[in-house]
Model the fold of this input.
Amino acid sequence: MGKVSDLYRQRVAEGRIEADPAQLSVLPHLDRVLDDMAATPAPDKRSAWRAFLGVGSSPPASAARGLYLWGGVGRGKSMLMDLMAEAATVPARRVHFHEFMQEIQAGLNRARQRGDQDTVRPVAMEVAAKVRLLCFDEMQITDIADAMIVGRLFLVLLEQGVVIVTTSNRVPEDLYKHGLNRQLFLPFIDLIRQRLEVVCLDSPVDHRQGRASGGQVWFCPADAAARDAMDAIWDDMTGGAQGEARRIEVGGRSFTLPRFANGAGRSSFWDLCGKPLGPADYLALTREVRVLMIDAIPRLSASNYNEAKRFVTLIDAIYEAKVRLIASAADQPEQLYNEGEGSFEFERTASRLREMQDAGWGRGA
Done:
């Protein structure tokens, strides 16, 4: 196995990241997981069948203990997950937890359609057949459907010898807090404490806010210079990643965020507001991103009234969710929508857009 600490120090030496004392303090815990996996063979996957049959629930003796890394937003947890997956020399997958659970729910639906009595087992077995290390980013449980199956899903994965490393903004005891039928979820918290080492990344520095809010975040007019400035911010936030299209599921349908990387999303105005999207879609978007970059917001008027209404709804959603906004636009917020139906109501949106430019605004502020 490689070491996360070696990759981290290499990134520091290359000037790609700045050394953070809190991040340095958790590197030994990440290295420990990889060292434990290297020191022990992969467990006999047949042991999982004992769990299915209700015979014991202890992990295989050779299973390495996983890690639950929690702390505030922007502390570098996602970056550390990237390094963890890169350092691993066993089959590993690094995936956003919400995306993973969407895949699991889709697999459960297929199992139901086949008539499987135990729908969790085949889905978990399929995952375990492909990976030995699962690196989850941003574990959060807000959906009752996820809450009701995640405990058994994890138990089967662990019994199959899959090692789980995950990040979260919450201490385990705050997962699914105030959720419906939460008492049924509590055994999963116990499972986390038993099978995963819980470590806090306690840093006073919000690296994402430092990058995005340390300078200009609203660029006008939306010309080539604005585009270059937006590209530079994107490269800084994502470590130079191009980003991939992100499909966001909403009530049995989906829409696509054109670019997503390291908790940041990027889209043109028309991709988000020129399509028939509504409040549910924008709320789902806020659960996916911490920073949203919108390119080329036009002047708004009666000629694009429907798009303007969607833009207002979008800004309301990201404002309430404290998603950091970086945008290029035809003009300053107060000058975007000066006449026509809806211009008076837009004054509140303009005020929010102005507030959101403040350096201290956003999640974790």
